[in-house]
Amino acid sequence: MRRLGFMVAIVATFSCLMAAQSISFDEGRKVWLLKTQQSSYAMGVGPDGQLEHLYWGGPLWRAQDVPAATNKKDISSFDPREMLENEEFPGWGGKRYYEPALKITRADGDRDLVLHYQSQATKGDELDITLKDINDDVEAVLRYRVYADVGVISRWATITNRTKQSFTVERAQSATWYMPPGDGYRLTYLSGRWAAETQINQEPIHEGMKVLESRLGHTGHNLNPWFAIDAGSADEEHGGVYFGALAWSGNWRISVEQTPYKQVRVTGGFNTFDFGYPLKPGQSLETPVFYAGFAADGFGGASRLLHNMEREYIAPGGLQSRLRPVLYNSWEATTFDVNQPGQEALAEKAAKLGVELFVMDDGWFGERNTDTAGLGDWVVNPKKFPNGLGPLIKRVNDLGMDFGLWVEPEMVNPDSDLYRKHPDWVMNFKGRPRSELRNQLVLNLARDDVRDYLFTVLDKLASENNIRYFKWDMNRTFAEPGWPEVAPEEQKELWVKYVNNLYDILARLRAKHPKLEIESCSGGGGRVDLGVLRYVDEFWASDNTEAFDRLRIQEGFSEAYGAKFMSAWVTDVPNMNGRSTPLQYRFLDAMQGALGIGANLNKWTSEDEQLATKMIALDKQIREVVQMGDLYRLLSPRTNDTTANEYVSKNADKAVLFAFRHSQEYNTPPPTIRLRGLDGKSVYRLESVDRKLTAPTTEVSGAYLMEHGLDVKLTGDFDSTAVVITRATQ
Ligand code: DGJ
Fold this sequence. Notes:
The protein has 730 residues and is an alpha+beta fold. The chain contains twelve helices and 36 strands. Helices cover 21% and strands 31% of the residues. The strands form six sheets. Strands 6, 7, 8, 9, 11, 12, 14, 15, 19 and 20 form a ten-stranded antiparallel β-sheet that branches. α9 links the parallel β28 and β29. The protein starts with a helix and ends with a strand.
C-alpha cells in the first residue's frame, strides 16, 4: 500500500513537471514543441537557417517525434523550394511569392529581406526567437506565449532596426499559421454591417486568397478579426477546428491563402493597405498579438477554449473580476433628452426591478441636444444638470446602484468649443475636405497632446464623480487620415499610433481608478476584438436590440467572444424590423450575455415590472453559469425554427438551457433538445421558469438529458423558455 502511495506521488510529480513544461526544445536538431492540453505546435530551424513550421494539431508530448526542418527541392524553375518550406515568419525577399510577414524598403531602395535564425530565449511559457536578415541587422523577434490550460498560443513580433540607416516597414504581420497540408479546408468567419454584426459565413478554401480586413481605422462592423478553419465537415461538437483571433482595434488584416502546393496559410497583423512605418536606427515596431488554437471537438470546443482564454488571461482582472452586474441604460428611452428629474425617475424604477448599474447615455454634456453639436465638450450641461452630476449620482448610489456614464472621447462635432479652439486636432489632409459622418470628425489620437488631453478630461470626470463605469463609444469610420504636423514619411504612423494611444488612455484610466469599468462600444459592435478586451469589461455587441435578429448576432459573437463580455439589453417593441416579441423572449435572449435593460421604464405596465423583477432575480441566480461556464450551442437560429443554448458550470453542478421558437409551422412540435456537458451519472433537478417543460419528472439523470434530451412546449411565434438544471445527487 505504502509503495503504491509512493508510486502515485512519483506519477503526480512527473505529470506536474510535464504539465509545467509547456515549451520543449530539442537543441541538437533545433526543434521547438509548444504544448497545451488540447494541442501542440512545432517549428524548427532548417539547414539554411530559416525557421520552418513543422506541426499544428492535437497534443504531442515529445519534441523528438517531430522531424527536423529540411530544405526541399525546387520543383521547377517556376516553383522554388522556398514556396514549400513553410516559414514561420517569411521576409519578402529571395524566391518567396506567398504573403510575407515582413516587408521593408531600405534608404537606398534595397527591399530584399531573408530572415534566418539567430538565437532563442525561453522562460516558463514564453519563447522568443530572434531572426535576422542574412546581410544586415534588420531584426525580428518572434514572441510565442503558451496558455497550456486553455489550449491557446499567442504570437507577435518585434521588428527592430539595428542597422545604421533608417528603413520603412511596409508590411508587418504578427504570425503566419499553417494548416497541415491538404485540400478541402473550409473557412468560417464573421461579417456584417451596422446593426447586423457577427453573421456567420462558411465557404470552401480554394487556391488563391481571401482577405478579411478593416481599412476603417477601427475594428469595424463589416468583418471581425477572427477565423476558424476545419477540414470541411466539423460541426458544433465534432471535428478538428483551427481558430485564431487578432488583438487589434485598428486597421487589421487576415489573409487566408491556399498555395498551388496544397498549403493553407493564414497571415495576420497590421493591414498592409496604406501602411508605412519608418524605423530609425534603434527603433522598434511591435505587431498586434495573434491568438490561435486547435480544438478536436468542433466549433463549440473552439469557442469554449477562446472564452476560457479571454476570461482567464485577456480581460482585466482575469478570473478575479466580478460578474457583470445587471445594467440599465437610458439611450433608447430618452436619446439626447436627458436631465436630472428624468434620469432620477428612471433610476428609481430601475432600482425597484433589481438593476445594479445605472448608465446615463449620450446628451449630458455641452450643447449636446442632438447629434449636431457638443461632442468634445465634456462639461456637464447646466440646464440639464444645474448642480452637476453629483446629485444624480448620489440618488443612484442611495438607491443601491453604481453609476455609469457615456463618453465618446475620440470625436468632435465641428459645432463644439473644442473644435473651435483646436481645429488642427482632427485628422485631416491640409486644404482637403474634412468629411463628416453623423456630423462629427475624428480627433487625431495619434498625437500625444490629444491623447494627454483626453486622459486628463476623463481622469477629471472619474476623480470628481463616483463613476463606476464608462461606456466608451466611437461612432464613425475614419476619413482623410492625414497628420500634417509630422514629416510626410511619418504620417502613415497614424494608423498604429492612434490605436496604441487609445490603449494607453484606457490602461492609465484603469490604473488610476482601479474600480472603474469600461464598455467598448462603437455604434454597437464596431470595436469588438481581443486588443481592446485587455482594457474593457464588456462589449456592446450591436445597436440592433431587436430580439430575433439579436439571436443570430449573438450566435456569431459567441463563436469568438464569451458571454461575460456581451452586453445585451431588453428594449421596447416594436423595435427594428417593426417586430414585436414578448417581454419574456427579450429577457431570456439578453440573459445569455451580461443582462441590461434599455427600455423606457416609464411606459412599462405593472405586469411588465412584475415579469422584469422575476427575470432579473433569475438572472442573478444563473449569471455565474452563463458568464463563467461553458457554452453549448445546441440549435442554431440559422438552421432551425428553434434556437437553444446551454451554459454549464465548470464542475457540471449547474446548467441553464435557453430555448426560443421563432415561428411554428404546420403544427410541428419543437425538436427534442439534447443537452451537453453534464455528468451522465448524476441526477439533475429541473426547474422551468414557466412550466413549459414536458418532462414526466423533475429529477432526471445527466445521461437521459444528454442522450434523449428535453422536450419543451414552444408554440406559435416567438415563444421562449428557460430551464435551470441543478445536480441533485452524484
Ligand atoms: C451609439 C451606441 O451604440 C448607442 O448605444 C448610443 O450610445 C448612441 N451611440 C449614443 O449616441
